[in-house]
């Protein structure tokens, strides 16, 4: 499946929230979690329902000469070898620190592609509507705020490749390219006010705003098996799962050695794909540099928080 070449984001710009000086993993995992939920709340809180229409993002205005609409774009394209048109391999993070969102999208695409299909709808007028389920005060009682966002398929390109999230599959016969990841990322940026504003967040909360169901998060170091059995059961039951690493500057020499050998990046979110064989298989939202299989002991040392969505 041909894809545009990815531009790797700077690791420090990706992943969950800022963390303090080195401390035990439990403290690291707890710090910033509520801050990330707050960061994922919209900057404005209008009444639920559709927004007035597509909004101009500052990045598109500043780089107007690089903005274009893919000539043959559509929301979903079934790639060669894919079971469904929506697949985790559609997700390619670009030059933006929103790995939390990309990992969450890949996780939901893996376990429940219909959720994504219902999230992104073609309006048949040159625009798309993307639906989010946003966190708000007393969400557990009142439910999440359903927010529809109208998006034009206009994106910033750096040469032949989109600058931010990348195009997905390309139909070999029609030449149509897949846009759903780009559309979701742009819709989220419209809610927050800019692409820059969506950098940094919690993948568990991102899964919740995609599915409308809450996520249960835990610290792998608190689990004897790093959460292997718990996550394995969740995946069997088709619940999306994500995990993120601590800051590289906080790693011990042992942790840094494991990360180098297993191809793990610090302060970065991943999709948990499998626990088959008693190891953790994870997907990097960059679409490349996927980690090698991790034992529970290795997973516990590097991943400070894992999240299981209830959808």
Name some characteristics of this structure.
five-stranded antiparallel β-sheet, disordered N terminus, 311 residues, 14 strands, four-stranded mixed β-sheet, 11 helices, 2 domains, alpha+beta, Cathepsin B, Chain A
Chart the SSEs and their pairings.
Blueprint: H1 25-30, H2 33-40, E1 49-50, H3 58-62, E2 67-68, E3 73-74, H4 99-111, H5 113-119, E4 120-122, E5 128-134, H6 139-142, E6 145-151, E7 155-158, E8 161-162, E9 177-178, H7 180-192, H8 203-211, E10 215-218, H9 228-236, E11 241-245, H10 253-262, E12 269-274, E13 281-283, H11 296-302, E14 303-309
Parallel strand pairs: 1-6, 3-9
Antiparallel strand pairs: 2-7, 4-5, 5-6, 7-8, 10-14, 11-12, 11-14, 12-13
Helix pairs in contact: 4-5, 4-8
How would you describe what is shown here?
A hairpin with a 5-residue loop joins strand 4 (120-122) and strand 5 (128-134). It contains eleven helices and 14 strands. The strands form four sheets. A five-stranded antiparallel beta sheet has the order 10-14-11-12-13. The protein has helices spanning 25-30, 33-40, 58-62, 99-111, 113-119, 139-142, 180-192, 203-211, 228-236, 253-262, 296-302; strands spanning 49-50, 67-68, 73-74, 120-122, 128-134, 145-151, 155-158, 161-162, 177-178, 215-218, 241-245, 269-274, 281-283, 303-309. The longest helix has 13 residues, at 99-111. It folds into two domains: 41-211, no CATH class; 215-309, Cysteine proteinases (Cathepsin B, Chain A). It is α+β, with helices and mostly antiparallel strands and 311 residues long.
């Amino acid at each position: 499946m041909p894809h545009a070449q990815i531009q790797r984001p700077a690791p420090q710009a990706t992943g969950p929230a800022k963390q303090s000086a080195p401390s035990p993993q439990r403290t690291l995992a707890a710090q910033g979690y509520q801050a990330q939920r707050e960061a994922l709340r919209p900057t404005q809180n209008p009444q639920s329902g559709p927004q007035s229409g597509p909004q101009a993002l500052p990045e598109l205005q500043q780089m107007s000469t690089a903005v274009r609409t893919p000539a043959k774009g559509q929301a979903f394209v079934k790639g060669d070898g894919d079971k469904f048109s929506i697949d985790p391999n559609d997700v390619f993070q670009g030059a933006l620190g929103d790995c939390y969102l990309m990992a969450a999208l890949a996780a939901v695409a893996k376990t429940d592609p219909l959720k994504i299909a219902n999230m992104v709808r073609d309006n048949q007028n040159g625009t798309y509507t993307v639906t989010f389920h946003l966190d708000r005060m007393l969400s557990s009682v009142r439910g999440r705020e359903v927010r529809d966002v109208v998006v034009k398929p206009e994106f910033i390109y750096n040469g032949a490749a989109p600058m931010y999230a990348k195009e997905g599959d390309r139909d070999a016969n029609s030449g149509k390219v897949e846009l759903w990841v780009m559309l979701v990322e742009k819709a989220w940026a419209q809610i927050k006010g800019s692409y820059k504003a969506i950098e940094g967040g919690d993948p568990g909360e991102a899964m919740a705003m995609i599915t409308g169901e809450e996520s249960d998060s835990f610290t792998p170091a608190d689990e004897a098996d790093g959460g292997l059995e718990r996550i394995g059961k969740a995946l069997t039951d088709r619940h999306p799962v994500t995990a993120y690493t601590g800051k590289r500057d906080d790693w011990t020499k042992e942790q840094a050695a494991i990360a180098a050998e297993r191809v793990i990046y610090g302060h970065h979110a991943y999709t948990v794909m499998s626990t088959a064989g008693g190891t953790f298989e994870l997907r990097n939202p960059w679409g490349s540099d996927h980690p090698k299989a991790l034992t529970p002991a290795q997973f516990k040392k590097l991943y400070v928080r894992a999240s299981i969505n209830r959808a």
